[in-house]
Design a protein that fits this description.
Layout lengths: L1 H40 L6 H29 L6 E3 L1 H7 L1 H6 L5 E6 L7 E3 L1 H17 L5 E12 L10 E10 L6 H6 L17 H12 L2 E7 L3 E9 L21
Parallel strand pairs: 2-4
Antiparallel strand pairs: 1-3, 4-5, 5-7, 6-7
Helix pairs in contact: 1-2, 5-7
Bound molecules: adenosine-5'-diphosphate.
Adenosine-5'-diphosphate binds next to helix 5 and helix 7.
């Protein structure tokens, strides 16, 4: 469980690096490598020790360049792989993790209807998103409290909720009764790098990541919050195509034909 939390943090760190920093770093390394190459030519003939030091520096810089290249490629290649996801099942699979990342004083309750329609989303990214929302909820309840994870289906017929396109949605909610946000915080909480958690504790990328996933998936992140009352984070995800009414049998014929 601890490791999955660390993985989520690592993902955030990678996102942070690739958000321009890796690019800048690459430019710096190019300057360093060019300077080293000039310096190498000025090493007096026969000074093997100086040559070795310069070569060491070149090797280090080249390794750094290759690492930043890989980071850049990783961030570009992080295309979503959406699929049909049973949300209650996904949450059940994370139960231990959610409880352990919620601390001993936080009650975790899940509430799902008996048959919740599946969502069409990248399951791995959804796990990270849920983890981010749960970590936020836990952080908002330092003295303990109630954390509820619930699901429901919604139909949008006109553009109403956060400008959502009309369609069928599955809504995953993470609800806490923690410290909540005032209006100024609520207005800024989606900004990348915005955090109220202090140096070394928050990266300010959690909600940006969740928002990005929702938007890229064709859904939305909807936040409700009141100072001293709590926060509700709703992840609106497109419903996966309804299964066809006629179930194909292994021989390829529709089951109705057999009846
Ligand atoms: P981080 O958690 O690293 O600060 P986030 O993007 O996840 O970054 O959150 C940004 C800010 O939004 C938090 O620092 C906090 O002020 C506020 N916030 C997010 N979720 C909640 C919540 N459930 N309750 C109260 N405040 C929250």
């Amino acid at each position: 469980a601890e490791q999955r939390v660390r993985q989520a943090q690592k993902m955030e760190a990678v996102g942070q690096l690739t958000g321009g920093i890796a690019h800048d770093f690459n430019n710096l390394l190019t300057v360093i490598l060019a300077s080293l190459s000039l310096l190498r030519k000025r090493v007096p003939a026969g000074d093997e020790r100086a040559l070795r030091l310069v070569d060491n520096a070149v090797q280090g810089a080249e390794r750094g360049a290759s690492l930043t290249q890989r980071l850049l490629a990783f961030s570009r290649g992080q295309a979503l792989k959406p699929g049909v996801v049973d949300i209650p099942e996904l949450v059940r699979g994370m139960a231990d993790l959610l409880r352990s990342s919620s601390g001993p004083v936080v009650q975790v309750e899940t509430r799902f209807p008996l048959a919740l329609a599946p969502a069409y989303v990248d399951a791995n990214q959804l796990e990270l998103a849920l983890l981010n929302l749960v970590v936020n909820a836990r952080d908002a309840m330092p003295e303990g409290g109630q954390l509820t994870i619930s699901g429901r289906e919604e139909q949008v017929s006109v553009r109403q909720v956060s400008d959502l396109p009309p369609g069928d949605y599955v809504v995953l909610s993470v609800i806490d009764n923690g410290e909540g946000m005032d209006e100024a915080t609520l207005a800024r909480c989606l900004d990348p790098f915005f955090t109220t958690k202090g140096v070394g504790k928050g990266t300010g990328l959690g909600l940006s990541m969740v928002y990005g996933l929702a938007a890229q998936t064709g859904g939305r992140l909807v936040l409700h919050s009141h100072k001293a009352e709590g926060t509700t984070a709703e992840l609106w995800l497109p419903r996966a195509e309804a299964r066809p009414a006629i179930v194909l049998q292994p021989d390829g014929g529709p089951s109705e034909a057999r009846a």
